[in-house]
Amino acid sequence: MNITVINGTEKHGVTYRLKELFLAAFRDKANITEYYLPKDCPGFCTGCVSCTLKGEDSCKDAEYIGRIDQSLLEADLIVMTSPSYVFHATGATKALLDHFAYRWMPHRPASEMFGKRAVIITQCLGSGAKSAAKDIKHSLSWWGISKIGIFTGALMGDIVWEKLSQKKRAKLTGKIQKLSRKFAHIDYTKPAHTNLITKCKFSFCRIMQKSLHKSDPEYLDGKYWAQQGWLDSGRPW
Fold first, then answer.
1. The domain 2-194: what is its CATH number?
2. pTM score
3. Directed axis angle between helix 196-215 and helix 220-228, to 10°?
4. Is the distance from CB of 10 to CB of 39 less than 8 angstroms?
5. Do the beta carbons of residue 133 and residue 120 sit within 8 Å?
6. Nearest Cα to 105, choosing from 77, 146, 46?
7. What are the residue ranges spanned by the domains of the chain?
8. Average pLDDT per 10 consecutive residues for the chain, totaling 237 residues
């Protein structure tokens, strides 16, 4: 089993501790590859749209994005972590997700993504963890992932793990371990179910790509959909 972890910060704080607790159930049975942002993806997307018009290899940060993309495609489980910064995921997380615009369903989604599972781990001081998780889930769902587990932790009074009350640490630990057990018991030899919402999104994008491909057979996205067989009867699930 392969797990790819995207850490939204290099800081080893509360989010890091929660992620470690989640992964504990997988340590003995999975190959875990971790990336830390911004170290492993230091460049911002400049909006040049080269990835969508010319291909992902034309991106100025292709060296970093290609490595992470391959790891995500090989993963049976994707784990995304991020503390909440002003009610949103970290800027480094947003920068990475911007780079993966070409993997959105309106462009060139990877067929492998439709059978994957993902977990999002967020926490914050007070409120904001849910909106941070929503930032990440929005992208994952448009990549084609239907099975997404979410952990949101709300801290009060302090953001240092060692300074949290024993009761608060126990509550967070119990909650994250419950999610961990749920995903540890999944049979990863079988692809995840693709839900109706994802299928509807795909169908809408298929109509769009079919029209674009008809008007310009060399348009990169439409050509990709045709090669996958999705403009005919083929489907990624």
1. 3.40.50.360
2. 0.95
3. 120
4. yes
5. yes
6. 146
7. 2-194
8. 98 95 96 98 95 96 97 98 96 97 98 98 91 97 98 80 85 95 97 98 98 96 98 97
